[in-house]
Design goal:
about 350 residues, alpha/beta, Arc Repressor Mutant, subunit A, Nucleotidyltransferase, domain 5, 3 domains, 5-stranded mixed beta sheet, about 15% strand
C-alpha cells in the first residue's frame, strides 16, 4: 500500500457522509496495511473473515479505482423479462386503455399481467408519469419576436428616469360566502369549510406592478370597460411622480386599445404602451402577483358582500406594499425564442 493510498483511505475511514459500507472497507484495508490478520480485522470491524479476505484480494487486483463499485452479478436478479418491460414502455408512450385518456399503475398491470408495483418501478426508472399533464400554448402572433424582445428588454434593462409597470385586470372576482360557518384548525385536524357557497356579486381589480420595487398600484372597479381602464390610468398618473416616464406592459385586450384610451394617451406623452404577444400572459409579471393574491387572500376567504371583498383586497394590497418584494426576471429573449423554436419543431413532428 502506497502512502497516497493510505492517506486516501484514512480520509474515507473518517468520513461522516460516505456510505457505511465504504467506510468499513477503508477501515479493513488500513488494518490490513498494518499487517493484522484477517480474523482479527473481522472481529474489530464486525465482519466475516471471508469478507475481509475478499476485500483485500480486490484491493490487491484493482487498487482504489473500483473501491466503491459493486461487481456485476451481485444483488437480486430481475424476474421481469425485458420483453415485458418493453411492452409496458411502448403502451405507456403510444397507447391508451380502452375508453380512458391515460394509464394508471393498476390499469397497466391488468393489461400486461404484472403487479402494479412493477409498473411503478418501470415508470420511475424511465421518468414516465402518465398521470401528469402540463398545459402550454405557443403564440401565433405574427409580431411575437418583436413584442417579446421589447417586453423582456424592459425587464432586464429598464430605461433611466422611468418606471416600468406590468398592468392587467383580474376580472369577475367573486364575493363568495359559505353556506355554513367554517371550523378552525385544531390538533389532528385541518381547518374546514363547506364545499358549496353563496355568490354575493363580483368586482374587477385593476393592478399595476412596479417591476423595480414590487409595489402595486391597485383599484377595484365594478366593471371591465375602457371607462374603468381610463379611471385606473388617471390613478397611475396621480401616484407616479412627475418627471418619470411610464412604461405600461399589458395584454392585447380591446379595452387597452379603445379610441378614447388612445386619445388620453396622446394627451399624456409620458405614458408608453408595450403589448405582450397574444396567448402570452406568462410574460406579464403582474399575473404572478395575482396568483399570490388568490392563494393568500381570496381562495379561502369568506366575503359577505362586494364591499367586504373590496376591503379584504385593499387590506392585502396595503400589507404587500408595506414590505414589497419584486419578482426577478432572468430569462433572456434569446433563451425564450430558442425554447419556443423547440416547441414548434415538436408540434410540427406530432402533426406530421
Amino acid at each position: 500500500m502506497s502512502d497516497g493510498q493510505r492517506e486516501a483511505l484514512g480520509v474515507l475511514a473518517r468520513s461522516q457522509t460516505a456510505p457505511h459500507r465504504l467506510v468499513q472497507r477503508a477501515e479493513v484495508l488500513l488494518l490490513a496495511g498494518e499487517g493484522i490478520a484477517n480474523t482479527q480485522i473481522a472481529q474489530r470491524v464486525g465482519l466475516k473473515a471471508a469478507t475481509v479476505r475478499t476485500w483485500r484480494g480486490r484491493f490487491a487486483e484493482e487498487g482504489l479505482a473500483k473501491l466503491g463499485k459493486v461487481r456485476a452479478g451481485r444483488g437480486r436478479k430481475s424476474t421481469i423479462p425485458q420483453s415485458k418491460i418493453d411492452e409496458i414502455v411502448e403502451l405507456t408512450r403510444n397507447g391508451k386503455p380502452a375508453g380512458q385518456t391515460h394509464w394508471s399503475c393498476r390499469t397497466m398491470a391488468e393489461q400486461v399481467g404484472v403487479s402494479s408495483a412493477t409498473v411503478q418501478r418501470v415508470w420511475a426508472a424511465r421518468g414516465l408519469k402518465p398521470h401528469l399533464v402540463h398545459s402550454f400554448k405557443l403564440s401565433n402572433d405574427p409580431r411575437f419576436e418583436e413584442k417579446l424582445i421589447d417586453v423582456v428588454g424592459l425587464y432586464l434593462a429598464p430605461p433611466d428616469n422611468a418606471i416600468v409597470l406590468c398592468l392587467d385586470e383580474k376580472s369577475s372576482v367573486q364575493a363568495l360566502d359559505r353556506t355554513q360557518p367554517s371550523l378552525p384548525m385544531t390538533k389532528g385536524r385541518a381547518a374546514t369549510m363547506t364545499h358549496d357557497y353563496k355568490r354575493n356579486g363580483t368586482t374587477t381589480l385593476f393592478a399595476a406592478l412596479d417591476v423595480l420595487t414590487g409595489t402595486v398600484i391597485g383599484q377595484c372597479l365594478p366593471r371591465h370597460r375602457h371607462e374603468e381602464f381610463l379611471k385606473f390610468l388617471r390613478k397611475i398618473e396621480r401616484e407616479v411622480p412627475k418627471g418619470l416616464q411610464v412604461h405600461l406592459i399589458c395584454d392585447n385586450y380591446a379595452t387597452h386599445k379603445h379610441p378614447d384610451v388612445k386619445a388620453w394617451l396622446a394627451k399624456h406623452p409620458r405614458f408608453q404602451m408595450h403589448f405582450t404577444p397574444t396567448s402570452s400572459s406568462w410574460l406579464n409579471l403582474v399575473e404572478r402577483w395575482f396568483r399570490e393574491l388568490t392563494d393568500k387572500a381570496l381562495r379561502r376567504g369568506v366575503f359577505h358582500s362586494v364591499p367586504d371583498l373590496i376591503a379584504k383586497i385593499e387590506e392585502y394590497l396595503d400589507a404587500h406594499n408595506d414590505d414589497p418584494k419584486p419578482f426577478i426576471w432572468t430569462a433572456t429573449a434569446d433563451e425564450i425564442l430558442a425554447k419556443v423554436a423547440r416547441g414548434r419543431v415538436a408540434l410540427q413532428a406530432v402533426n406530421q
